[in-house]
Protein 1
Amino acid sequence: MKKILANDGISAAGKKKLQENGFEVVTENVPQENLIEVINEVGYEALLVRSATTARKELIDACPKLSFIGRGGVGMDNIDVAYAREKGLTVANTPAASSDSVAELVMGQLYTMARFLQDANRHMPTEGATQFGALKKKYAKGIELGGKTLGVIGIGRIGQATAKLAIGAGMRVIAYDPISDIKEIELHIHGLGKVKAPIERTDLKGLLAESDFITLHVPKQADGSAVIGEDELKLMKKGASLVNAARGGVVNEESLLKALDSGQLSYAALDVFDNEPTPSKDILSHPKLSLTPHIGAATLEAQDRIGVELADQIIAHFGS
Ligand code: NAD
């Protein structure tokens, strides 16, 4: 029986699938300094990690029986991927498993900004009993997402998942992406099945000018530059709102704060920050920001899918 060490854990669904396919799965967390010894002693042939455990050159060299390293999630900075592949190991991650989770967070943030939920949640506990009428007046001019234009910058996996939900919410979706040539997406309508919807493509300037809401789904840029900085913010519709659930740095935080203060932007929602895990005080305390601590991918369903996706890849690897 082939033995798998899921050192940072694996979902119950993933574990079950592996066990049903004849693998032994151990989820005990072995400290990094004992990992090589335990892998060799027990004879593990696959190592599954999330972000905590690392699989460096030294481990790859020292564990000759290991033929598969799996990362539950996207980034593989904790694995020497090229070296492992050079040595003939299979290295896999699960890039698609959390796209729907991030997309749902974005929709939550769009509704939040449209109806001032972040501000209402801050003020109701302290003023709800004494200033009810004033707060009611303050939050009375919300808007609906239906009929508004959502600009998606980066129409890859998460961009498309977000576009599907936004179309479902009655929004017009326009997208800018210099690489992807996607022109339509498949929606799964409960009780109806699959329906194809066109994606309107535009350039960045057009997207900035036309969108009531903008959401970014791009990777950290190779040169570290911001995709949305001062110049881009100026080109946005006055009073528009912005979501960054991609990576800290793709929106310039300083320029964003200025745009919020001047009223150029109404609101912004951030799940990712410069200097994680210690975002700036100005960002954390700004009343026009709706904030979450990098939880875009963190749903129970995504954890299940990550486990099952890894299980499928292990089954394919050892089955071949
Ligand atoms: P993806 O590779 O499927 O799509 C990214 C798209 O962005 C590609 O189509 C690419 O052509 C496009 N792109 C790159 N640079 C661009 C630019 N300057 N302007 C416009 N488009 C550009 O990636 P994905 O799975 O959709 O993930 C997108 C990003 O989301 C990831 O790189 C990651 O940084 C982030 N992410 C965040 C969380 C979270 O917890 N908040 C979770 C998962 C991923």
Protein 2
Amino acid sequence: MTDCFSAPGLLPFEQALSNMLASIKPIGLDDCETVMLENVLGRVLAQDISSPLNVPPHDNSAMDGYAFAFESLISDDCLTLVGRSMAGQPFQGVCRPGQCIRIMTGGKMPVGCDTVEMQENCEVLMFKSDVFQSNVLQSDVQQNEEQQNKALQTVRFSGKKSLGSHVRNAGEDIKEGQKVFNKSHRLTTVDIGVLASLGIASVKVFRKLNVALIATGDELKTPGQTLTEGDIFESNRYVLSAMLQKLNVNVIDFGVIEDDFQAIKTAFEQADLKADAVISSGGVSVGDADYTKDVLDELGKIDFWKIAMKPGKPFAFGHLKNSIFFGLPGNPVSALVTFHQLALPGLLKLQQCEALKRINLRVKTMTDLRKSPGRMDFQRGVLSTNEQGETVVTSTGAQGSGVLSSLARANCYIVLPTSQGKVPAGEIVTVQIFDQYLS
Ligand code: AMP
Ligand code: MG
């Protein structure tokens, strides 16, 4: 997707990303803690996890029915019922040729059985309730013929039988010793179930990052306050904070800081003391009230990039004394897209998390797309399925960097390479589906 047709003076997007990633050193491998399973959702594993056991641990039935040796039914369609195996209460004896065992879903396969027939295909003849009194009905059939005859039931099997049917084999899900998760994997809801099924009660995870959030701008009021003339409601901190929650970091909120050199300097110094990463929005361009650059020139080693991407041309990245710094543009769409495309991969690296696997598709655009060559566009689109069953994309309309509602309606970026000009409807374009951080 990268190309080298950026307008003069602009840094290609891929270059900005790789420069940034190259200069980020992740937190230490031993910077971790042990956390109980109940609290590990979204945490990043600091260890590989291999299975200490087979899952399931024993062969068991996938159906309510009857278990037997497949060979027994080759010459006959009736077997003698000699016991039962319930989930957690296995049959203790041996099932011999010509015999079968009542078995419930999850019941351990009795010794001597290799096949289960579901109860819908079985008919119990001469049913007597006392046959089900014990799990060990006939552990030794030869020794007690008389008692056996009293309790004997016959089960007739109909339908086609196949060897091994309805049996879940030991280790079929996960084998003992098998690698289940790699270090640096972020644990999802289902992963926690898998860990529980392995009997693992706690895991080693990397510590949570501390991330400071700062919005700059005299015009910004927080929701709940009253707008006076020229003001707008501040939204960047809210949306960034929500995305950071999905990254499972501790957010340190510095609120809104006025456009004042000293106020911004104090906030950045404080943030640097407390955080692994500091994220600011606004003030990174070269307007009269953009003090961020002057402050950062004093406080750290920060690069101010003009990236060949749209939205989001101005972007600052570098190192303060203790932390890394991301300076996002103030426009809400630009702030979000630069956070998602640039800061997020950086934060993942910092927290020792595996890199994002972004999913790109090639689909037809149903709308004309406006574009001039010179920057890589991350336009907002809606992926859908048309009446012919094809996946297609439609632009969300106005693509201004202040139109946050365009991002809310979207479910993908339409990624147009730097050299691309306008695209007529019907052409094939690349889209990037929104991941869990944006949805
Ligand atoms: P700046 O990057 O500070 O020049 O801001 C660019 C535009 O984004 C201006 O229209 C600002 O009012 C707006 N803006 C800056 N910060 C925020 C914010 N935190 N929330 C919403 N809009 C913002
Ligand atoms: Mg500003």
